[in-house]
Amino acid sequence: MRIYKVGGAVRDRLLGKPVTDIDWVVVGATTEEMLAKGFRPVGSDFPVFLHPKSGEEYALARTERKSGRGYGGFTFHASPEVTLEEDLIRRDLTINAMAEDDQQNLTDPYHGQRDLEARLLRHVSPAFAEDPLRVLRVARFAARYAALGFTVAPETLELMRQLSESGELQALTAERSWKEISRALMEDQPQVFIEVLRACGALKELMPEVDALFGVPQPQAHHPEIDTGAHTLSVLEQAARHKQPLTVRWACLLHDLGKGLTPEEEWPRHIAHEFKGLKLIKAVNERFKAPKDCQELALLVGEYHTHGHRALELKPSTLLELLQSFDVYRRPQRFEEFIAACEMDARGRKGLEQRSYPQADYLRGAATAARSVAVQPLLEKGFKGPELGEAIKRERLKALKAYKETASF
């Protein structure tokens, strides 16, 4: 029995990056031997075990072959005869197909270290094209390591293009897709993830609503970058730069989908794109089974982001409706995330990345003013039921009128 550290832990150590998760592969062992040493089995698809003390995952060396469509369409074979090289060749990228023993002696049969130095994301073997999930994984790695100068090797991008055109991406489950998408959006340069998906034709297959934004012009006065797709990438880039959470980044990606529906004869204006985009945002949310908080914020930002930009001009009654839509009294964090998404939208414009966004503090002040209305005095006056609701609304409107008159923005 020989045990090796494999994959990301080896890659990141060689890159000088912190190692978080460690994967281990065991060569020359049987399931019975692992159980005898106290390892606990996990799952039934292939032999993976938990270490009796550390709880880390140890997998028996295995080979695999394609037996059906999609991510799960594989037959695995594990036995003591499977070599380390045979186990490594089934991996996606050369930089993930290296192993080291407990003395840090490197096993690198597919030149992963050379590709690390060349800053290339290159597939290990033609079997790469058997797993459609790898299209998303490579795009995610491109986003993660873009700051280090990594790019996708042309021959790998070509394989990704072939996979995209094959229809295999449609076999991916929503859960597996969302796992990759959500992780990619939380990388330092998530816009690179979208760029790579678009370059290989996968964006058109997975998110045609986002792909449709490229080539759609906007008014240059408000959008010096002009192209709606380019703007979306810039908004996503700003969201990452400002360390926004996943909910905000997802909303930033989808906020302008309605502009893809504007007839060409109406370009570059996009009247009512906020409302037109809601059905598209809903469709993307459902396709990937995004978490509820991501779904809700994306729809609210899609519908109300232009309200956010015009916050200082809104009538108190419109401002109250906006606050009510977000339920700022019980869900203050969601309104904060809306404000953040609006600010990223404003900053995601060529040459305007550093401009101030006074609307943010103005909206926060408005929410505070509305929340400051006390309910108890109205109860003491005898209001109840629907009458109480109307009375609270009147008092909040009064508070917002007073706030608008005194706020200095």
Protein model, in words:
- 50% of the residues lie in helices and 9% in strands.
- It has a domain at 1-111: Beta Polymerase, domain 2 (2-Layer Sandwich), CATH 3.30.460.10.
- It is built from 20 helices and eleven strands.
- The strands form three sheets. It has a seven-stranded mixed β-sheet with strand order 3-4-5-2-1-8-9.
- By secondary structure, it is of the alpha+beta class.
Keywords summarizing the entry:
Beta Polymerase, domain 2; two-stranded antiparallel sheet; 9% strand; 7-stranded mixed sheet; elongated; alpha+beta; 50% helix; 409 residues
CATH-derived architecture of the domain at 1-111: 2-Layer Sandwich
Rough shape? elongated
- The name CATH uses for the topology of the domain at 1-111 is Beta Polymerase, domain 2
Record field, number of beta strands: 11
The computed structural class is alpha+beta
Helical amount:
40-55%
Q: How would you write the strand order of the largest sheet?
A: 3-4-5-2-1-8-9
The CATH class of the domain at 1-111: Alpha Beta
> Strand-residue fraction?
5-15%
The major pleated sheet works out as:
7 strands, mixed
CA-CA gap between termini: 70 Å
Q: Number of DSSP helices? A: 20
**Uncertain residue segments:** none
CATH homologous superfamily classification of the domain at 1-111: Beta Polymerase, domain 2
For the CA atoms, what is the radius of gyration?
26 Å
Mean pLDDT: 95
